[in-house]
Amino acid sequence: MLVTGSSGSVGAALVAGLPAHGWALRLLDRVAPSVDAGHEVVVGDCFEPAVLDRALPGCTAVVHLAAVAGEAPVEQIAQSHVVGTARVLDAAVRHGVRRFVFASSNHAVGFTPRQPSVGVDVPPRPDSFYGVGKVAGEALCSLYTDRHGLQTLALRIGTFRDRPVTRRHLATWLSPGDLARLVDAGLRAPDLTHAVVYGISANTRAWWDLEPGRRLGYHPQDDAEAYAAEILAGTPEPDPADPDEAFLGGTFTALREVR
After folding, report:
1. pLDDT band at residue 35, thresholds of 50, 70 and 90?
2. Among residues 130, 144, 198, 218, which one is catalytic?
3. Which of 21, 43, 59, 129 has its CA 20 to 30 A from that of 15?
4. Please, are residues 198 and 234 in contact by the beta-carbon 8 Å criterion?
């Protein structure tokens, strides 16, 4: 299995966590990993077809993480999230890959007002150019499923970090262990065609519906509530108008355009 963007924070966590689920990994990034964990490594730009043609032979699945990792000018987002993702999808089809897991984001629906439980069927409401890029990536996955029969899964990742530290994180946290469980479930789901799921842990205060992920076999084990007493004791009661409280995308909804 190929992991693009393997040296980023999400990539490094998957490199550490997926082998325990039985996966042999090939890593692709512009920088070599800092620690030799015994995996196959390809160093290069994953948006270059020649690099992909070196990295993909023999792989049955791709976990595509490589992209601009935050808000940026629209030209950079389009090149990374749209053109780049299409190139990786093209290469996957070219090399007979059957399954493609795409790192989307909660920012694809960031301007959706906070609700008790938001499903994956809400309309896209991106909160930034970054969010627009993730919406486009999800659409590309759908296209390649319909056009080429590729099995695709888009993960709308919440707040990925070792532990939650803010009130918002009590709803949006995704732990490293649950990240690996989520990707493993997506890689193994027997009836996958194209699906979108939310990537969070089993948080008591979750804003997003985890049922679509559970139907694919994702059974998260961590809950941000374990940190709630500490977090709530150290922060004041929030203003309901604060973007972190009012919108799914949090402070991204307060961003101004980056040109």
Report:
1. low
2. 130
3. 129
4. no
